[in-house]
Amino acid sequence: MVMRTLAASLLSIGVIVTSMQVSAANEPIQPIKPVKPENAELVELGKMLFFDPRLSKSGFISCNSCHNLSMGGTDNIKTSIGHKWQQGPINAPTVLNASMNLAQFWDGRAKDLKEQAGGPIANPGEMASTHDMAVKVIKSIPQYQAQFDKAFGSKEVDIDRVTTAIAAFEETLVTPDSRFDKWLEGDKDALTKEELEGYKLFKSSGCTKCHNGPVVGGNSFEKMGVYKPYKTDNPAVGRMEVTGKEDDRFVFKVPTLRNVELTYPYFHDGGAASLEEAVEIMGKLQVNREFNKEEIANIVAFLKTLTGKQPDFKLPILPPSNNSTPKPQPFE
Amino acid sequence: MVMRTLAASLLSIGVIVTSMQVSAANEPIQPIKPVKPENAELVELGKMLFFDPRLSKSGFISCNSCHNLSMGGTDNIKTSIGHKWQQGPINAPTVLNASMNLAQFWDGRAKDLKEQAGGPIANPGEMASTHDMAVKVIKSIPQYQAQFDKAFGSKEVDIDRVTTAIAAFEETLVTPDSRFDKWLEGDKDALTKEELEGYKLFKSSGCTKCHNGPVVGGNSFEKMGVYKPYKTDNPAVGRMEVTGKEDDRFVFKVPTLRNVELTYPYFHDGGAASLEEAVEIMGKLQVNREFNKEEIANIVAFLKTLTGKQPDFKLPILPPSNNSTPKPQPFE
């Protein structure tokens, strides 16, 4: 009776509405927050560099080639294509929301986006340039120098500044406003019954033990194949490559599930072509659970609600090379 | 005396100002006019397809890979990179203002942009897909079907519609508002003394015999090497490939000089790395003229005034593949 009266009072002053809302604070997943870059000129410079294939030896491969911002920040192929069509060793992780990962690359060998950005440029199997050559190319272009001046306060170009700018741009690549985030923020109509069922099962089965926080992953290293071994021809050993410890064999950074509908194929080897396949395998290997068809469909429906606002900017126009710019060497 | 009075009268009523302005009608080059697309949904669809690497076998090469709209609609390498890093036979021509060419490809083998668009998709050395496969991929994606519905009035996807849409997008890729066009339209301060000297020499030497009209070329086929033969290792024979006539050996479509500052390297074989080199060679071979250093510098200065407004749109976001979409085959 007292309760009913209290409820009625709360209702009458509108408080009940708030208390009935989903509280993101009580959920293992938190909403993605939009970012406001501090230095817009630095972001603009980073965007140009991200799209500039002259950072590669061939003049053909840019950051955007494998982290294609038209396609969820990935290349949507099992393992990437590098200089002279070399087959990459691992699936290109999405650059979307990557700033919130605890470290970069599947094995976490780069501590942040800036350190990551320098990797592919100088990797002979990827962009196949060198930091010296990349800097020489960019430095030769007066319009780039002017943009460095705006971004850093002086025209000097070095690899530290190049990677700082790319990282600053990448930090803007967050994807707020997914339907799931709307639900987290109190819009209980944002999800269908199936999607909500899927989310509940995702939590109750233990998936959120690793896939949690704002990026639904990205904040821990975990073994691939906890209850059963993961079968793959891919030779990557994961975290062990970094730590040298046998215990870290097949330990990888937990990938973000944000925009997972767009970032197929899945796992470090790109071994799962569909979300259904990925959920089934993860169930068996990681949480010791054989999901039935309906359960898989519900979890997949939930996962598709994690697609947020995609990159929203104009295609950057790159300043031309000139007679002093080193030439690309696509066939050497 | 009569003349002076007339002049004074004209001046007094402001007519003399008009008569002193440059009249584009009297120049061999005309300004580029902006275009207003009739069907915005068709253009939007074409833009998505232009950026979609799923039109290629590998899932890695899109129209934009070799006609990069961040880089003057070209790839800025001598000859393009195709499927499995095959070396292309010829320099990728710019897609900017290409709608105004009398025909497409260097040898004019496609009559328009629509016919052109189908070529690279199915060329084993370029995107290496087939029209059937490209259609199958696009048709499998409901969001694409919805865009076809908006653009064409029904969801049906076929290669005719795919290439119609790409061509409609490409028709919007015109580059008005260059400094030269401003000068043509009466702003006599738009060019420096050197640029104007360069233009005068460009005309008086006979360059405008072929490089004329709104796109400064693109409206005739001409022999490469009129006064002296052009030396190249490139086996392309040009127009002869289409007509079978020996007279058409080394006859190529005259390339546009619009945005030529951005479309290096030059000639059908990409053989000239710099504008200076290109002008020097063209002088000797095509108009029988040995330009001195200052003359070359002036002509190059003029050519750089032909850079117009570059593509200005948001990076398209592509709809994801799904379980029924054929998979890319990058390494097959």
Automatic annotation (TrEMBL), chains A, B:
Pfam families: CCP_MauG (PF03150), Cytochrom_C (PF00034). One of its GO terms (molecular function) is electron transfer activity. Gene3D superfamilies: Cytochrome c-like domain. Heme c 2 binds at residues 207, 210-211, 282. Binds 2 heme groups per subunit. It is found in: Periplasm. InterPro entries: Cyt_c-like_dom, Cyt_c-like_dom_sf, Cytochrome_c_Peroxidase/MauG, Di-haem_cyt_c_peroxidsae, MauG/Cytc_peroxidase. Keywords: Electron transport, Heme, Iron, Metal-binding, Oxidoreductase, Periplasm, Peroxidase, Signal, Transport. Heme c 1 binds at residues 63, 66-67, 83. Residues 313-332 are annotated as: Disordered. Coiled coil: none annotated. PANTHER family: CYTOCHROME C PEROXIDASE-RELATED (PTHR30600). This is Cytochrome c peroxidase. It comes from Nitrosomonas nitrosa. The lineage of its organism: Bacteria, Pseudomonadati, Pseudomonadota, Betaproteobacteria, Nitrosomonadales.
